[in-house]
Specification:
The complex is a heterodimer of chains A (274) and B (321).
Chain A lengths: L6 H19 L36 H37 L1 H16 L2 H11 L5 H10 L3 H15 L2 H8 L4 H37 L11 H10 L6 H28 L1 H4 L2
Chain B lengths: L2 H27 L4 H8 L4 H10 L6 H13 L13 H36 L4 H15 L2 H15 L18 H39 L2 H8 L4 H11 L1 H17 L1 H8 L4 H10 L3 H29 L7
Helix pairs in contact in B: 1-14, 5-6, 5-8, 5-11, 5-14, 6-8, 7-8, 7-12, 8-11, 8-12, 9-10, 11-14, 12-13, 13-14
The chains are: A mainly alpha (274), B mainly alpha (321).
């Protein structure tokens, strides 16, 4: 059973690959996303043969900015997701394998961190720091994204603690680290992969939202959220400036969700039949 | 008090304490000074800055600040907003109503239409109805609320101007009758509530579909259909069993009342808590941001507490501390 067997899984993987490939390959063939060729004559032009997605209020090419925006949005969300997945997995493994006091303390802490809505933690951090550089935004997104995954991995580890192969490994003198990495981690890999794919979509939506509010990545950098922030002011005269970055965001997040659904269905025997 | 209830209450109190401590630590460990930006726009002398620092207690050592903060929280005092120069508690209280109105409306839409669609999907599992609704749900989950909001502002503001796209009420109607003002309020509510419903209903449908599918394979459902009950009566049996997950969902949903509205309130200039939080973050208003975050955290903790208690009452097997 592979992920490509389900139609929606194929669609999800397809969407993600097309967007990622476009982000990597296309920019050299497009206009300079930062260039403002003609502020008076070529600003806010509707889509045409010369500018397929139109131009924005500063006469910049919206197609070039949208494609470069994919680079930025994926380039920020992917490391954030990797960081969150790593931290969440490590904390979950540590709590689940160690058990006892370590487990209780870590899980109470995770409970509390989960109780504060992630968006508010981000707003709080952004309020408390000077204007963060892009890597700083990726860092905060990663550091606020691991709580739920830690619980998931911990639950998996706690479930496996009673398993016979774990008792056997312990009896053979395996260290806790070996138990965690060689025996628990492979069993938890599926749920971790599902959570990571969803985490990618979440990170993209949050980054875009913060940039839309003017708190994340600042203009003129073309992330999709920052483009929506700029597009909002000229919504009535040039709606295409807001349309395309938003579409990019929807299609990418949809791709991530569909891929994670297919992954889940593949791993969950109950979903496999019918 | 039963043991499980006591244990659960204790856990909620502990969580709240850690939430408050985390908020405090996050705010104080971060570099940057809330008064630095103040002097960006208006010239402030060093003496004035020092006086302001003293007024907000920023010149005290951390433990003293934490003690003052804790004492304040216990007395229902969350400090004074730096930008508004008014107590955080009163600012938050003013904005709470608008957020709750928006949130409760969206909650009602989700718990009527959303649940119904989810049940429909489960009953038609694998058939076209399920597939179409499933696809719509997947799109709903991927939609950014601010983008949907912008689209509605564009559509209704420019092309179908029969619904207001900003604010809570029309200032021209201040002297109008109560009924007219209510209708005006509801008209302002439509687009923000529609936006938030569109981006949340997919999650509710998917959750309810899964809960209903689990319930449909329970032995008592099979028994009911074996005894020759009509399909409608069988569905009714299964639907009852799918209610415990719904209670859990309600608990999970409460934070969305607060956070889901941050972007929507910003787009529609809806004067609620979410907009206030965004404003506080932009203006680096430490006390106000902390107040909003603590309120959001409290709502989440109380929500999951209430949901757990409701579930334990509905299903005694869940009564573990």
């Amino acid at each position: 059973m592979s992920i490509s067997r389900s139609a929606s899984g194929r669609l999800g993987i397809g969407l993600l690959s097309v967007i990622a490939t476009a982000a990597l390959v296309l920019p050299p063939f497009l206009a300079d996303p930062m260039a403002q060729p003609d502020l008076l004559g070529a600003a806010s032009l509707p889509p045409s043969a010369a500018h397929l997605f139109g131009t924005d209020g500063l006469s910049r090419d919206v197609l070039a900015r949208t494609v470069t925006g994919a680079r930025w949005s994926l380039g920020l969300a992917a490391p954030a997701m990797l960081l969150a997945t790593t931290v969440g997995t490590l904390v979950g493994l540590a709590a689940g394998v160690a058990g006892g006091t370590v487990d209780s303390v870590l899980m109470r802490l995770v409970d509390a961190l989960l109780a504060i809505p992630r968006l508010f933690v981000l707003l709080l951090l952004l309020a408390a720091t000077d204007q963060l550089p892009p890597w700083g935004i990726a860092l905060v997104l990663g550091l606020t994204g691991w709580f739920a995954l830690a619980r998931l991995v911990r639950a998996e580890a706690a479930r496996l603690r009673q398993a016979e192969f774990m008792a056997a490994a312990r009896a053979l003198g395996a260290s806790r680290i070996r138990l965690a990495l060689r025996h628990v981690l492979p069993n938890a890999a599926g749920p971790i992969a599902v959570a990571a794919t969803i985490g990618l979509g979440d990170a993209m939506l949050l980054e875009a939202g913060l940039s839309f509010l003017g708190l994340g990545i600042q203009p003129p950098t073309p992330t999709w959220g920052a483009m929506l922030h700029e597009g909002r002011d000229i919504l009535t005269s040039a709606p295409w400036v807001s349309l395309f970055p938003g579409l990019g965001l929807v299609l990418t997040v949809l791709g991530a969700h569909l891929a994670s659904d297919a992954l889940r269905a593949m791993l969950d025997p109950r979903e496999r039949s019918a | 008090m039963p043991r499980w209830l006591f244990g659960r209450l204790l856990q909620a109190v502990l969580t709240l304490l850690v939430v408050f401590a985390t908020v405090f630590v996050l705010m104080r460990l971060a570099p940057g000074d809330p008064l630095a930006r103040l002097s960006d726009d208006t010239p402030v002398s060093a003496a004035e800055t020092a006086a302001l620092r003293a007024r907000y207690g920023l010149d005290q050592p951390l433990p003293t600040q934490l003690a003052a903060f804790a004492t304040g929280v216990l007395h229902g005092d969350l400090g004074v907003s730096i930008q508004f120069g008014r107590p955080v508690v009163s600012l938050v209280r003013e904005r709470l109503g608008a957020t709750l109105l928006l949130g409760l409306t969206v909650l009602v839409v989700n718990f009527t239409l959303g649940l119904w669609l989810g049940v429909r999907q489960a009953l038609a599992r694998g058939r076209p109805v399920d597939r179409v609704l499933g696809a719509a749900g997947a799109v709903s989950v991927a939609l950014p609320s601010f983008w949907v909001g912008l689209a509605l502002v564009w559509g209704f503001g420019l092309h179908a101007p029969f619904l207001p796209v900003a604010g809570l009420r029309d200032p021209m109607l201040d002297t109008a009758s109560r009924a007219v003002q209510w209708v005006d309020l509801l008209r302002h509510l439509v687009l923000p509530a529609l936006t938030l419903s569109l981006v949340t209903i997919g999650a509710t449908m998917r959750y309810q579909r899964a809960a209903m599918l689990d319930a449909l394979v329970q032995p008592f459902v099979r028994t009911a259909s074996a005894r020759g009950l009509t399909p409608g009566a069988v569905t009714h049996h299964a639907w009852r069993a799918a209610l415990v997950p719904v209670l859990t969902l309600l608990g999970l949903w409460l934070p969305l009342l607060v956070t889901g509205s941050v972007f929507v309130e910003a787009v529609f200039a809806w004067p609620g808590l979410g907009g206030l939080a965004a404003q506080a973050a932009a203006l680096r208003d430490y006390p106000l941001m902390m107040g909003c975050t603590m309120l959001a955290g409290t709502i989440v903790v109380l929500g999951s507490l209430a949901a757990d208690i409701a579930c334990a009452i509905a299903d005694p097997r869940l009564r573990t501390a």
